[in-house]
Amino acid sequence: MRALSLIALLCAIAIPVAGCGDDDDSSTSGNDTGGASTGASTTKSEEDTGGGASGGGGETLKIAADPGGALKFDKSSLTAKAGKVTIVMDNPSDLPHAVEIEGKGVEVSGDTVTKGGVSKASADLKPGEYEFYCPVDGHKDAGMEGTLTVN
Ligand SMILES: [Cu+2]
Q1: 125 — phi, psi (to 5°)?
Q2: d(CA 136, ligand 1 centre) in Å
Q3: Going by C-beta distance under 8 Å and a sequence separation of 6 or more, which residues neighbour residue 54?
Q4: What residue ranges in 39-126 does DSSP mark as E strands?
Q5: CA 17 to centroid of ligand 1, rounded, Å
Q6: CA–CA separation, 29 vs 102, rounded Å?
Q7: pLDDT (tens place) for every residue of the chain, 151 residues total
Q8: Centroid of ligand 1 to alpha carbon of 114 (angstroms)
Q9: From the CA of 129, how far away is ligand 1's center (Å)?
Q10: How far is ligand 1, taken at its centre, from the CA of residue 134, in Å?
Q11: Long-range pairs for 137-141 at CB < 8 Å and ≥24 separation?
Q12: Nearest to 149 by CA among 99, 101, 116
């Protein structure tokens, strides 16, 4: 008897809660910088589905550090259209790495991340040649760098 009425009570609570499940207010967190994290897979309908290529007029370039721990990226040259460019680097290696974009007065670096982390650097770029590299000590000199061409 007790248990039964408890269940009834829980249902009575659960139904109205589930019924009003529109969290309009709580979705105002940090969506802005997330242009790169397309894999989010949650219900963000209007923004993402619109743009055919990549969200919000920016371009996202994906690279990865060498999984075996070599001091290099998996790409040595990248191309992007002028505008907002974001480089997203996966770090599957045991070493700390980051990604930095430099050139034409621009210098932005992402966080240094350890295994499993993602480092992102984004900047508004004009056409020209830039370089991207890992700013961790010695890594760039060892070959962890590449060319970013903006058209
Ligand atoms: Cu590095």
Answers
A1: -115, 140
A2: 5
A3: 35, 38, 60
A4: 59-64, 77-80, 83-91, 100-103, 106-109, 117-125
A5: 48
A6: 30
A7: 455 554 444 434 444 444 444 554 444 444 444 444 444 444 443 444 333 444 456 999 999 999 999 999 999 999 999 999 999 999 999 999 999 999 999 999 999 999 999 999 999 999 999 999 999 999 999 999 999 999 9
A8: 10
A9: 21
A10: 5
A11: 138/71, 139/71, 139/97
A12: 101
Cα separation, 142 vs 76, whole angstroms? 13
Q: Which residue type occupies 34? A: G
The tokens describing 13, both together, are 């609570």
10 CA to middle of ligand 1, Å? 53
Q: What is the number of residues in the chain? A: 151
